[in-house]
Amino acid sequence: MAGEITETGDLYSPYVGLVYMFNLIVGTGALTMPKAFASAGWLVSLVLLVFLGFMSFVTTTFVVEAMATANAQLRWKRMENHQEEEEEDSSSTASDSDGLAQDGYERAETRPILSVQRRGSANLFEITDRVEMGQMASMFFNKVGVNLFYFCIIVYLYGDLAIYAAAVPFSLMQVSCATTGNDSCGVEADAKYNDTDQCWGPLRRVDAYRIYLAVFTLLLGPFTFFDVQKTKYLQILTSLMRWIAFAVMIVLALVRIGRGRGEGRPPLADLSGVRNLFGVCVYSFMCQHSLPSLVTPVSSKRHLTRLVFLDYVLILCFYGLLSFTAIFCFRGDRLLDMYTLNFAGCDVVGVAAVRFFLGLFPVFTISTNFPIIAVTLRNNWKTLFHREGGTYPWVVDRVVFPIITLVPPVLVAFCTHDLESLVGITGAYAGTGIQYVTPAFLVYHCRKDAALAFGLGTVNKHRSPFRHTFWVGFVLLWAFSCFFFVTANIVLSETKL
């Protein structure tokens, strides 16, 4: 169940972990970034991208520090429990065993861990147990904080599923509807398609989209009712396809620009596009909720912070290269929500196999992730309503929870396939809570708990370089400012309409 402490899993080297983090962060959000760049202007986009990348790095170090503190507390409790068992075994008064256990529990909760420090505080903060964010929230937050965390992660996962449920049918619609009739070259970027345009005979484009959505739901929806796991080979395959697709798009755009066929003339700044750009960038740097599963199996964490920083630098360079080649290769009004579809036309790519590979790339990669995200969301619902010692009836466990997981995102995808807005809203609201607010409160409370339990002199070997309280306040202030700005922008935009 989501939020439980699980085994570490097979260990891998720090550099393998670096690759895994890169693959985790660079996902669907990157495909919507070029259009957001073109809408907001290249200078504003560059500044915001670098700043949001830095803020994501700060909160990533916060989560790692909280993970280390959680591991220290778990290690301390195990050591105390072991010590209590030894004391009970050596005691000759079996009738007083209950009182001794209660007394030992009270000592464990109130006494500073001087004895643990003497037995090796250097390894006290070693990250060996995989403690998910839900478990850390239960350790450091009160009941209200835990419920707010689960509410935020559930909203984010719903947004994720809605994006996935819309992206696959949208890509299939764009490719299949544009290759019918006399046009066999795929999506023509100059053409302005409407949902009411014809696709196949009497079927409109929106009808084709909804047919694909229904097929997508029928094929992948049943996985929500069962437990699925991402296999190692599936991860390798999707990662390989992602690298090939992004590399091909960058090279094709550079070749087109080098031949003098670049059409993009992006403005320096356009504040009307900042709202979606912000949400897309936050969504594109999202990794905090998966850090426990990613960081814990790293075999050597000695230079973990440096490796994470290197990863963020590489990701920034990659996002910048992808987006800048896109906005100078294509006019802003030609860039599509899903950037891969810009390469589905004969005027851009002459090889049919490459056109179809890029046009259908989101279908393959997103389809493999949808069942995993759905099961994660279902388990979070179960955790939110779980009561100690209680069990769910079979109908609730196997029918109700999967249905409330699957139906809402499919309904959202049925109503809209505006991927840029879906990514922007998900990142701007739920993404802000997961990427900024939760890590800031986690590190603040874990530092307080560590100071009380371990003493002020104990140093967390994985503490964040941003250890001053100022950074916690700055992250929370930035999160509040972003929430206020995005909301005000939406209200003003709707008022103008």
TrEMBL record:
Segments crossing the lipid bilayer: 12-31, 43-68, 148-167, 209-228, 240-257, 307-328, 348-377, 470-492
Gene Ontology cellular component list: membrane
Keywords assigned by UniProt, alphabetized: Glycoprotein, Membrane, Transmembrane, Transmembrane helix
Location of the region described as Disordered in the Swiss-Prot/TrEMBL record: 79-100
Subcellular location: Membrane
Pfam families for this protein: Aa_trans
Highest taxon of source: Eukaryota
Record-annotated Amino acid transporter transmembrane domain positions: 20-68, 135-450
InterPro entries: AA_transpt_TM
UniProt topology in membrane: Multi-pass membrane protein
PANTHER family: TRANSMEMBRANE PROTEIN 104, TRANSMEMBRANE PROTEIN 104-RELATED
Family membership noted in the UniProt record: Belongs to the TMEM104 family.
Name of this protein: Transmembrane protein 104
